[in-house]
Prior knowledge:
The complex is a heterodimer of chains A (113) and B (112).
Chain A: E1 5-7, E2 10-13, E3 19-24, E4 31-37, E5 44-50, E6 53-56, E7 65-68, E8 75-79, E9 88-95, E10 103-104, E11 108-112
Parallel strand pairs in A: 2-11
Antiparallel strand pairs in A: 1-3, 3-8, 4-5, 4-9, 5-6, 7-8, 9-10, 9-11
Chain B: E1 3-6, E2 11-14, E3 19-21, E4 23-26, E5 32-38, E6 45-50, E7 56-59, E8 62-65, E9 75-77, E10 86-94, E11 97-102, E12 106-111
Parallel strand pairs in B: 2-12
Antiparallel strand pairs in B: 1-4, 3-9, 5-6, 5-10, 7-8, 8-9, 10-11, 10-12
Amino acid sequence: GAGVSQTPSNKVTEKGKYVELRCDPISGHTALYWYRQSLGQGPEFLIYFQGTGAADDSGLPNDRFFAVRPEGSVSTLKIQRTERGDSAVYLCASSPRVSDEQFFGPGTRLTVL
Amino acid sequence: GDSVTQMEGPVTLSEEAFLTINCTYTATGYPSLFWYVQYPGEGLQLLLKATKADDKGSNKGFEATYRKETTSFHLEKGSVQVSDSAVYFCALSQYGNNRLAFGKGNQVVVIP
């Protein structure tokens, strides 16, 4: 079946612009996670959703970052006033339930010029 | 906070050699431990896991044992193949909180 998909695969933007990154989880998975992976580092947790609500957003670096999952399926990560330090690969994962294995998408590579 | 440390640098070895990648962790309580693998051009995949002390996770010829006394979860494979070339990440999560904390990863290159 279809895995986790993320769009776009690559996004180049200018400093100060607004960007949206989309994640389509595996159908029926109730838990959805966002991670950020900087060059040469492991993924860092940003936020996770159980259904429509953000169960833990303690990894969001500041208030320029926001994520939604209005219908409990697709999620959008939103970044306002982008900075060069936001450049990274943004990974999405989903799992059937919170305690289950997480399945990762291919990521969106964000480059802020 | 919880953290995972992996040995520094890439690992290059010949086909059929023995592979070890070290992983140690710092965490309160009794976390679950994982190894994830990222093959070239693909997303992260769970390779194996262990949820309590002395458990051994195994998959595709890889093994790792949860050692609470040394807070370690080293990955081993007895005879690597070229197809094992990938980046390997050690990770942990706490019970009741499924957020994963990853190490920096190790690039493994297997030469024919």
